[in-house]
Amino acid sequence: MSILQKSKDEVPEAPFDSKLIPVMREAVLTVQMVLYRNLKKKVADRYSDWPEEKHGRLAGAVVNNLYGTEAVDPAVGHFARENRELVEDELRCLADHCSDLIPFLTDSLRMQTICDNQEGIHSLGSLLMARALGILREDRELPLPSTFMLSVRNLAAVHGIIEPQKAAPPPEDCNSSQGM
């Protein structure tokens, strides 16, 4: 059963410790950053005659719209209002343009909704829009927070946002340190 199919009574009241919410939000922001970078490159390829800042504004407007967030940069908000049809066209093509990110988008939108719910914010609209756009994979199981954060960390490393996690060195053999 997907998060969209559960009634309010079936969703646990407090699935996350309050200390976990900021960490989960940071993981959601990381997915947004990866999506923004991918979109900006694809927009630049399709609209090569545009100035570079316009590529970023369109990519930012699409990400903000998908996640239901306000633009931090007033120029992005203005661009989104002035180019509403273009932003909507990009949203409709998102499943095709960023198909490799769909599992991460699905998980991050769900995690955002859970975090919002814990803070008394109603953001189910983002999930409903993602479903309508073909981005939300309802058959995908909701990952545990630790699994989600690790997958996002790996995604960020692949996209050069953070350094790849190095494997821990093997533990020292107790016998070798005693000179046996």
Strands, helices and their partners?
Layout: H1 20-46, H2 52-67, H3 74-82, H4 84-97, H5 102-118, H6 124-132, H7 145-158, H8 174-177
Helix pairs in contact: 1-2, 1-5, 1-7, 2-3, 2-4, 5-6, 5-7
Question: Would you give an account of this structure?
Answer:
61% of the residues lie in helices and 0% in strands. By secondary structure, the chain is mainly alpha-helical. The protein has one domain. Helix 1 crosses helix 2 (52-67), helix 2 (52-67) crosses helix 4 and helix 5 (102-118) crosses helix 7. The longest helix is centred in the first third of the chain and has 27 residues, at 20-46. The chain is globular and about 65 Å long. It starts with 19 loop residues before the first helix and ends with a helix.
Mean pLDDT: 88
Total domain units: 1
Number of helices: 8
Structural class: mainly alpha
Order of helices and strands: HHHHHHHH
Q: Which stretches of 5+ consecutive residues score pLDDT under 50? A: 5-14
Tell me the β content: under 5%
The radius of gyration over CA amounts to 20 Å
Percentage of helical residues?
Answer: 55-70%
Major beta sheet summary: none
Separation of termini?
Answer: 58 Å
- Strand runs, count: 0
Per the principal axes of the C-alpha atoms, what is the gross shape? globular
Structure summary:
It is built from 8 helices and no strands.
Features of this protein?
single chain, 180 residues, mainly alpha, 8 helices, globular
